[in-house]
Amino acid sequence: MDADNVPVPRLAVLADALSPYADALRIVVAGHADVASAVTWPTPPEVIVAAGWQRADLELAGAYVPAPEPLVLVSGDSDFVQLAARHPGPVLVVSEAAASRFRDIGTVVDPVHDRAALDQWLAAAATGSD
Question: Residue 117 burial by CB count (10 A; 0-12/13-18/19+): exposed, middle or buried?
Answer without folding.
Answer: middle
